Amino acid sequence: MSDKNYKSSNLIKRKKKILHLKIWGLLILFILIVAGLAYLSNSDSAKISNIYINDTIFFDKKEIEKIVREELDGKYLMVFGKNNIFLLPKFKIEERLKNFNSSIKKASLTLSGVNSISINIEEYKPVAVWCNDSDCYYLNENGLVFNKASIDYDKNLVKFGDWLRDDPTGKTYTDPETFKKIIKLIEFVLKVPMKVVSINTEDGLTFNLHTDVGTRLLYEINDNPEDVANNLNTVLEKDAINKAQLNNIDYIDLRFGNKVYYKIR
């Protein structure tokens, strides 16, 4: 073997040795980093010990804390603890809380210290109730039935009936767009002045709006609420029907645009 070939062979061996050393060095460094992270993630100093939850109306805060604790329990890859501010499953907790109860509109998790997190629960606000023969349930702004109403619920809320059956929780009274139009019409009717106290429908197309003066308003879902309210106001003014006389009207049919019909009792 020539001197040149000998030197070349030694150079290759040296490079391989250096490469092996680098690989082992990187492997040891990786193991140390993993071990360090594993230690840190399971360290008591990094564990989440305090969970703050805002006040809720429709369920006990302890139920929320239980869910959070369950999600913080356990480890990633059987090594890295979840119960710390670095690796806590924030989005999974938020998603689970959102789906936990139909009254929850939004759930958010934020850090409030090295060992503390804050859970903010935003609940739906009732805009109406749906009632059967025995119970009433809250409806949100989209017509979703989200929780059973308490016995002393706000009696100023409009009462919907029919259309739904049994326990309606999680169901919608009608599609959100239609429901919002009905709520708008209710608000417009207040300016007449007249107050809608209950609503029912048999086919989901025509709605009977029962008012506090005993007169029913017939409304078609395809009609614009503001136009309907204007037509109602116009006919009341045109025919000089004051509030006292409204007691003698069985219904006012608002389903035919500018042509408004009404029936005397």
Summarize the topology.
Layout: H1 3-41, E1 50-53, H2 61-72, E2 75-76, E3 80-81, H3 90-100, E4 104-113, E5 116-123, E6 128-131, E7 136-139, E8 145-148, E9 158-161, H4 176-189, E10 196-201, E11 206-211, E12 216-220, H5 225-238, H6 243-246, E13 249-253, E14 261-264
Parallel strand pairs: 1-5, 6-9, 9-10, 12-13
Antiparallel strand pairs: 2-3, 4-5, 6-7, 7-8, 10-11, 11-12, 13-14
Helix pairs in contact: 2-3, 4-5
Radius of gyration: 33 Å
**CATH-defined architecture of the largest domain:** 3-Layer(aba) Sandwich
Strand content: 25-35%
Q: List the strand order in the largest sheet.
A: 8-7-6-9-10-11-12-13-14
- Classify the secondary structure makeup into a structural class: alpha/beta
Average pLDDT confidence is 87
Distance between the termini: 122 Å
Number of H- or I-type helical stretches: 6
Level-1 CATH class name of the largest domain? Alpha Beta
The major beta sheet can be summarized as: 9 strands, mixed
N to C succession of SSEs: HEHEEHEEEEEEHEEEHHEE
Number of strands: 14
